[in-house]
Design brief:
120 residues; six-stranded mixed sheet; Nuclear Transport Factor 2, Chain: A
Length: 120
C-alpha cells in the first residue's frame, strides 16, 4: 500500500524538518526544479533552495506556527520566525505542491531586523 501525503502534510513535514535541521528529509520534499522567492533572495533548483534553508537554519531557533491553511495543492503557513540574531519575524509562506513535491515557495516578512542581526 502506498500512502501519499496531502499538501498540508507536506508543509507540516517541511517546517518540522527545517526546524530540526533535517536536510535529507527536506531534499525528499522538494522538486528538483523547485522555485523559491523570498525577502532574503531567490533560489532555482533543489541545491540552491537547500543552501538557503541551511544558511538561515544556522540562526533558526524555532518556527512558531500561528495558522496553516490548505486548499488543494496550495498551502499558506503564517508563523513567527524565531532566530538567535533578531526578534521573532511574523512570516507568511506559500507553497505549491506538484506531483507530491514542493514546486514553488514564496515567503514574505520584514527582513530589516534579521539583516541587522546577520551584520553584527
Amino acid at each position: 500500500m502506498t500512502t501519499t501525503m496531502t499538501a498540508r502534510e507536506i508543509a507540516e513535514t517541511y517546517f518540522a524538518a527545517w526546524q530540526a535541521g533535517d536536510f535529507e528529509t527536506l531534499r525528499g520534499l522538494l522538486a528538483d526544479d523547485v522555485d523559491f522567492a523570498g525577502a532574503l533572495g531567490t533560489a532555482s533548483g533543489i541545491d540552491e533552495a537547500l543552501a538557503g534553508l541551511k544558511g538561515l537554519g544556522q540562526a533558526l531557533e524555532k518556527i512558531e506556527v500561528r495558522v496553516r491553511v490548505a486548499e488543494g495543492d496550495d498551502v499558506i503557513t503564517w508563523f513567527d520566525l524565531c532566530t538567535s540574531i533578531a526578534p521573532p519575524a511574523p512570516t507568511a509562506n506559500w507553497m505549491h505542491v506538484d506531483n507530491g513535491k514542493i514546486a514553488r515557495i514564496r515567503v514574505t516578512f520584514d527582513p530589516r531586523e534579521l539583516l541587522a542581526g546577520f551584520s553584527r
